Amino acid sequence: EAQVTQNPRYLITVTGKKLTVTCSQNMNHEYMSWYRQDPGLGLRQIYYSMNVEVTDKGDVPEGYKVSRKEKRNFPLILESPSPNQTSLYFCASSFSYGGGNEQFFGPGTRLTVL
Amino acid sequence: GQNIDQPTEMTATEGAIVQINCTYQTSGFNGLFWYQQHAGEAPTFLSYNVLDGLEEKGRFSSFLSRSKGYSYLLLKELQMKDSASYLCAVRDTGGFKTIFGAGTRLFVKA
């Protein structure tokens, strides 16, 4: 089944404890992206990747890191999480950036930073 | 700056037609998407417009006017399962970003 998977689905952690949220897609998509979703603000793009080893900042990259060493995986790293990073996170992928290529979203990771 | 505006909430009756508007101001434009998101779930793709005009897909249609920075999503023959949030998203030309509106929460009542 074609899908985007994220792990963990739920995480409660404390300020300053490094964490990684994994994202994997099995559709051979080139473009991958991370978003956070907060009430009243909608989805905001954190980082995106056009292909392996090609990543760039979205609109809210502060406090986050990403890597794209393999085409299928795009982990999101919080080196020192803070309470303002409490949010619902979505990973998404699309075949490429252009044309009518829609994004396929993972199920989401609900993160709480105490 | 970059901005996408949608109404926060709308209510409509089962079987009726509803139009959800989206206006955008972005530095570039390379396509507009509509996604549906049920509560607690991931967004799923509904439609894509890059040229002016109407795109129809079953009960859902989407319209785009690039000169006005305006789009709408039209839902016909509303069903209870259409109760969800509808997200308008613009793909920018500067960089490879996608900008989402805050979403419109649609309530369908019997």
Set down the secondary structure blueprint:
The complex is a heterodimer of chains A (114) and B (110).
Chain A: E1 4-7, E2 10-13, E3 19-25, E4 31-38, E5 42-51, E6 54-57, E7 65-66, E8 76-78, E9 87-94, E10 104-105, E11 109-113
Parallel strand pairs in A: 2-11
Antiparallel strand pairs in A: 1-3, 3-8, 4-5, 4-9, 5-6, 7-8, 9-10, 9-11
Chain B: E1 3-5, E2 9-13, E3 18-25, E4 32-37, E5 44-49, E6 53-57, E7 60-65, E8 70-75, E9 84-91, E10 98-100, E11 104-109
Parallel strand pairs in B: 2-11
Antiparallel strand pairs in B: 1-3, 3-8, 4-5, 4-9, 6-7, 7-8, 9-10, 9-11
Topology, number of strands of chain A: 11
Unreliable spans of chain B are none
Average pLDDT of chain A, rounded to a whole number, is 95
The helix content of chain B, as a percent range, equals under 10%
Note the run of SSEs of chain B as H and E: EEEEEEEEEEE
Outline type of chain B = globular
* Number of separate helices of chain B: 0
N-to-C CA distance of chain B: 40 Å
Rg calculated over all Cα atoms of chain B: 13 Å
Largest sheet of chain B: 6 strands, mixed
Query: Most extensive chain contact?
Result: A-B, 26 and 24 residues
Q: How would a textbook summarize the main sheet of chain A?
A: 7 strands, mixed
Quaternary organisation of the protein chains: heterodimer
Q: Compute the gyration radius of chain A: what is it?
A: 13 Å
Helix content bin of chain A: under 10%
Q: What percentage of the residues of chain A does DSSP assign to strands (E)?
A: over 45%
